[in-house]
Amino acid sequence: xxxxxxxxxxxxxxxxxxxxxxxxxxxxxxxxxxxxxxxxxxxxxxxxxxxxxxxxxxxxxxxxxxxxxxxxxxxxxxxxxxxxxxxxxxxxxxxxxxxxxxxxxxxxxxxxxxxxxxxxxxxxxxxxxxxxxxxxxxxxxxxxxxxxxxxxxxxxxxxxxxxxxxxxxxxxxxxxxxxxxxxxxxxxxxxxxxxxxxxxxxxxxxxxxxxxxxxxxxxxxxxxxxxxxxxxxxxxxxxxxxxxxxxxxxxxxxxxxxxxxxxxxxxxxxxxxxxxxxxxxxxxxxxxxxxxxxxxxxxxxxxxxxxxxxxxxxxxxxxxxxxxxxxxxxxxxxxxxxxxxxxxxxxxxxxxxxxxxxxxxxxxxxxxxxxxxxxxxxxxxxxxxxxxxxxxxxxxxxxxxxxxxxxxxxx
Length: 411
Ligand code: AMP
Ligand code: MG
Description:
Helices cover 17% and strands 29% of the residues. By secondary structure, it is of the alpha/beta class. Helix 3 packs parallel to helix 6 (304-322) and helix 4 (234-242) crosses helix 5 (263-269). The two termini are 48 Å apart.
């Protein structure tokens, strides 16, 4: 019987790469705003940052010690002044002279080396060099950055090191991409919120809290829109109520082919064009993605592992693309601890693994897409490409590490 619903036969499943291409390709850049440096960590830079100064801005001592001429290291040196960080030297260093100097202070003219204090002996205003390290211990003007150099690129993720660069280039605020606001809704008449009584046939809503946590970990603002009943009209009603403040709707459940799967029809009723429905991804076969003016929607299958994995590998890159950042998850290489086999290899599959410090990926006991407890013990997601049905013991594999974004520009 076919009442117009998809049955997700082989021919209807969009290959993984095409799914990614379609979803990422439909992103439109968000605007930009200025935020204070205190609020800039985790955001995406909306403009190139150019240095307004040379770094270091003067020849700077890297050590506490004595600035002198390298030609004079074998002679006793008379101390002519003390230069502290933050003040400029007053005297030039001539033959047989030195200045006591602190780390970060400007090196006096005439000096071409700073001998660290540990390598000297001082008596009666004179210094002898007891050990010659061969190092200048001077950070030279402009050796890190020149005035006008592009020090940060538009589209980069702002991490603590980028904050330091922004501060060093006199940034009080930073231009950042506006973040999309996520609207998280879970569908299903069987759902009870944690803390509520669970009567026969009901289960606890774990997807709502999980998605809120994933959004928070990604640094994205999210509003929880609650449990949506399995009835026609509920999805368009909810979208109508929330559309003024939500950019990306995320629904869990109700996207498949059951009699109570009202999400695809409801989204079409709300004016969304469905660009993906049915993906060669495991878990995630009924994945749905749609777009309408100024908003996007993901329909994730209700099983908690599907929600977890699809958010990590698809929703996150999409949200970063909206902000102009080429996000890709962190991946590590490890060796598989035992053979993995599967029946059929049409879909790109994902299973939970644990990583050991000596480079092994351990396959965990995993019962399928409802088994979120397996991921609670996992460090990463092992991807098995479509067409591959066996991974050998000891084989080198790539493991996706879920969690906060970490890579500077995704390139
Ligand atoms: P569905 O995609 O609506 O067919 O749901 C697939 C499976 O996921 C069913 O066993 C649901 O009970 C379960 N499920 C749906 N929504 C949630 C949720 N919010 N939390 C936990 N499990 C869910
Ligand atoms: Mg359902």
